[in-house]
């Protein structure tokens, strides 16, 4: 086993608030362990294009509070090919890197696992995505900030919805997962939450809206994950219109606003803890794991597990939405 002297770090896939805090923690912990650190620009794309930059304590100064990622990010098509991964490996050797830390989501870890299989190169991953859809960690870096962005926006929508006695379908991110919709739905007192994991019963939703109006609720907010089977918020509104009725309905799509902004205290804390733990894991000869946090304890989860297992939403939480809006 080669002794690790120099590591590289990259961010990949959709960005998330807290990625900078994670980069900072990786760099500073590595320097403290007398390791050299290289940053790779634009994720796996930069690995292939040899976009390596030296990292010092200073290069990560004043970034813990900033959203986005100073290393930039990308979704690399070339890294999906064997040839692309071979070039990436050669660049890691050229830059004398002995190990790599990747910060990203499911796609990032799938790429990492194939790379390790082909080149036997140590990689440790950190869960960075606002979607929270990674098995092996209670929360991903960026999820909490995205939730706070959503509730701030929905609170504002609630003001105007109540004034006009309207129904709003608010679309939040989550192409394949309903974590953002469900958690923020509870936090902002939504009247209903629609998620990709559960087939939407259109008739039932229409009945509910009819009841709410009959009960003279001043407003209804329906949180819709973008991956919901009825085609997001616009799709649901269209479906509700087919039933007829006198509802005054509006749609707001929150979009990429959810991916930006200064990370919350929790995301900064999580990213800092996981960044330190990732360097420790590499020094402890771990080579194909994601570092997560389960029940407030650091967890080492093999990439094979994070990829194989699907993290499901807690369906009981959908009942809580119903109980609390009655
Ligand atoms: O970051 C995850 C995610 O927000 C998904 O929920 C969403 O569908 C996707 O990224 C959109 O990303 P992009 O616009 O970068 O393709």
Describe this entry's structure for a reader.
The chain has two domains: 183 residues, Rossmann fold (3-Layer(aba) Sandwich); 114 residues, 3-Layer(aba) Sandwich (Rossmann fold). By secondary structure, it is an alpha/beta fold. The chain is elongated, with a radius of gyration of 22 Å. The longest helix is centred in the middle third of the chain and has 22 residues. It has eleven helices and eleven strands. The strands form two sheets. Strands 3-2-1-4-5-10-11 form a seven-stranded mixed beta sheet, with helices on both faces. A four-stranded parallel beta sheet has the order 7-8-6-9, sandwiched between helices.
Task: Summarize it.
The chain is α/β, with parallel strands linked by helices. Helices cover 42% and strands 18% of the residues. The chain has eleven helices and eleven strands.
Keywords:
elongated; binds 6-O-phosphono-beta-D-fructofuranose; Rossmann fold; 7-stranded mixed β-sheet; alpha/beta; 326 residues; single chain; 2 domains
């Amino acid at each position: 086993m080669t002794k690790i002297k120099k590591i590289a770090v990259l961010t990949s896939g959709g960005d998330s608030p807290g990625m900078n805090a994670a980069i900072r923690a990786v760099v500073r912990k590595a320097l403290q362990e007398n390791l050299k650190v290289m940053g790779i620009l634009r994720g796996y794309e930069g690995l292939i294009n040899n976009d390596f930059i030296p990292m010092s304590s200073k290069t990560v100064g004043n970034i813990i509070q900033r959203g986005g990622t100073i290393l930039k990010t990308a979704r690399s098509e070339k890294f999906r090919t064997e040839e692309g991964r071979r070039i990436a490996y050669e660049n890691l050797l050229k830059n004398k890197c002995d190990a790599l830390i990747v910060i990203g989501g499911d796609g990032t870890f799938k790429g990492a696992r194939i790379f390790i299989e082909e080149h036997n190169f140590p990689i440790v991953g950190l869960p960075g995505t606002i979607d929270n859809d990674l098995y092996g960690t209670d929360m991903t870096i960026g999820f909490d900030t995205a939730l706070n962005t959503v509730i701030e926006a929905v609170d504002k929508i609630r003001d105007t919805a109540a004034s006009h006695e309207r129904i709003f379908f608010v679309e939040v991110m989550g192409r394949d997962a309903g974590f953002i919709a469900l958690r923020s739905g509870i936090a902002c007192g939504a009247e209903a939450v629609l998620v990709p994991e559960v087939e939407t019963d259109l008739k039932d939703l229409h009945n509910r809206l009819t009841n709410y109006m009959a009960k003279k609720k001043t407003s209804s907010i329906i949180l819709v994950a973008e991956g919901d089977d009825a085609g997001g918020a616009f799709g649901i509104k269209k479906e509700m219109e087919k039933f007829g009725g006198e509802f005054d309905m509006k749609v707001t799509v929150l979009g990429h606003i959810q991916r930006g902004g200064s990370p919350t205290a929790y995301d900064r804390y999580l990213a800092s803890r996981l960044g330190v733990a990732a360097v420790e894991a590499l020094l402890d000869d771990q080579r194909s794991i994601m570092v997560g946090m389960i029940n407030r304890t650091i967890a080492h989860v093999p990439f094979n597990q994070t990829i194989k297992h699907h993290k499901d939403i807690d369906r009981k939480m959908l009942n809580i939405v119903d109980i609390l809006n009655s």
